[in-house]
Task: inverse folding
């Protein structure tokens, strides 16, 4: 085993891990926000909204994430190239980067998968608690914001921890469209040093540590609400 | 409907140094002639089942009205129509003289015409449920101040002061920072009663408040309700506790298959009912107890 390259490539690895974390945070927060909309949409009594949410979830969950990333990057991305107006605009530096296509694909993926999870969580909140909020005079939106959604999220914390770890690992697909995330950097090091395993092993260890960190953060959140296993 | 401040006296509540709940339920004086709850010819059906078949009902400020009857007789539905948790198919509901606006939607269902109006009315109707329904992600105190702060826009300090007075009243002051999951059923229900009182309602609605409790916990909850009744709190109570209903009620109504079969003072209904069904029901309940 040869780890002498660590000194030379250390800075690059840090940048790679930062890119991975950026993807995680962007797709995590935006995806979660969208997932909340999808979750409520799935429960909507408006047939069109319910249909739209269901179709979206089916589309996202029914196709491989890698295919979605390719469609975004090679499909949508190359479409943009044909608009000279876009190519000259300030947006172009962003549109040229694989990063934003991956971020978008991951966001939609989270929205699809977590949306379905949130739907289940919303259903799991006892109806009486919502009724109590309404009966005491809370308008519907306030009830959703203060009672329904927070309750669902607390119920779902263990599941959401798992989804976050899944997302962390999905970000590695970014390397397939030339994004220098953690895995992308590892591959680069492999090519330049002709070492097969060592860079991969180091990055695997970093993913593992990040995953443990996420689990611990969620555990902490769970501890903030001491609920006996009464329900 | 007069604003809340005319029916209650928050100043009294705090300047006296000790909270007295009777201030919360002071009669409205000469201006208030309309019954606090006035229900006219209410009908409600669930599918093929007609649960209320044209029920009329009034409660005056200061009344303690008990609704009794067998399961499925419509008493809970009637109570839930008072604050529109169930929207009746037809009939009128007036709260302090103001009629709840209803309309028919394009599917032919009766729905609320003005939801904000109902939200406003609901803050004047405290509701207590059979299954407590405290919000488990909030502490006891947070459960109490949520609606006063978020809906009634009360200053936080004022809301907390009232909440603590109410918790003391129901004997739960020392648990104010506990989460509901750590309380017994009786304690949860007492907190739920305090939560309903925290909006300073004009009427309290109780939907079988002791039915989900272990027998040894029923007493502590009934005592709180009895104290409220003695303080002059206006309340409508769906209950299977016949002895309790007989003791606290100013008015008792016996429902049978969606109709009010017998109504009168507790004495009339329990000791000298006109209807044979009512007599059988009451006797059966007392023999059981």
Result:
């Amino acid at each position: 085993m040869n780890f002498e390259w660590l000194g030379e490539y250390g800075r690059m690895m840090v940048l790679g891990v930062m890119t991975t974390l950026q993807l995680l945070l962007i797709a995590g927060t935006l995806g979660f926000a969208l997932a909340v909309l999808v979750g409520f949409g799935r429960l909507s009594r408006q047939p069109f909204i319910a249909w739209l949410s269901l179709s979206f979830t089916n589309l996202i969950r029914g196709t491989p994430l890698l295919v979605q990333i390719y469609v975004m990057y090679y499909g949508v991305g190359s479409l943009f190239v044909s608009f000279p107006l876009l190519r000259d605009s300030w947006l172009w530096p962003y549109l040229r980067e694989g990063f934003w296509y991956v971020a978008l694909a991951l966001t939609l993926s989270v929205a699809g998968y977590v949306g379905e999870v949130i739907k289940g969580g919303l259903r799991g909140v006892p109806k009486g608690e919502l009724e109590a909020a309404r009966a005491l005079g809370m308008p519907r939106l306030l009830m959703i914001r203060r009672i329904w959604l927070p309750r669902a999220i607390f119920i779902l914390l263990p599941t959401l921890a798992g989804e976050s770890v899944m997302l962390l690992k999905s970000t590695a697909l970014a390397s397939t469209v030339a994004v220098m995330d953690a895995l992308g950097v590892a591959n680069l090091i492999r090519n330049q040093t002709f070492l097969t395993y060592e860079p991969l092993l180091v990055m695997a260890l970093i993913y593992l540590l990040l995953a443990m960190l996420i689990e611990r953060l969620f555990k902490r959140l769970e501890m903030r609400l001491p609920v006996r296993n009464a329900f | 409907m007069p604003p809340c401040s005319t029916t209650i006296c928050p100043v009294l509540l705090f300047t006296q140094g000790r909270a007295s709940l009777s201030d919360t339920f002071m009669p409205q004086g000469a201006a208030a002639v309309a019954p606090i709850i006035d229900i006219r010819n209410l009908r409600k059906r669930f599918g093929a089942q007609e649960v209320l078949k044209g029920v009329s009902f009034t409660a005056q400020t200061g009344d303690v009205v008990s609704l009794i009857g067998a399961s499925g007789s419509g008493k809970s539905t009637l109570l839930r129509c008072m604050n529109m948790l169930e929207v009746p198919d037809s009939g009128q509901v007036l709260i302090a003289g103001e009629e709840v606006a209803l309309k028919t939607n394009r599917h032919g269902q009766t729905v609320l015409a003005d939801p904000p109006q109902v939200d406003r009315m609901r803050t004047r109707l405290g509701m207590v449920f059979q299954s407590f329904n405290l919000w488990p992600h909030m502490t006891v105190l947070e459960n109490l101040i949520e609606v006063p702060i978020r809906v009634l826009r009360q200053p936080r300090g004022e809301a907390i002061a009232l909440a603590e007075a109410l918790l003391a009243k129901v004997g739960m002051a020392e648990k104010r920072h506990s989460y509901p999951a750590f309380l017994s059923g009786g304690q949860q229900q007492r907190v739920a009663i305090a939560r309903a009182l925290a909006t300073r309602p004009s009427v309290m609605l109780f939907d079988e408040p002791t039915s989900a409790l272990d027998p040894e916990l029923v007493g502590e909850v009934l005592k709180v309700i009895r104290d409220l009744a003695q303080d002059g709190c206006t309340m409508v109570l769906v209950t299977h506790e016949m002895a309790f209903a007989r003791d606290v009620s100013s008015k008792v109504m016996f429902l049978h298959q969606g109709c009010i079969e017998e109504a009168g003072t507790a004495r009339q209904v329990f000791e000298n009912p006109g209807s044979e069904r009512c007599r059988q029901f009451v006797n059966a309940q007392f023999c059981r107890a």
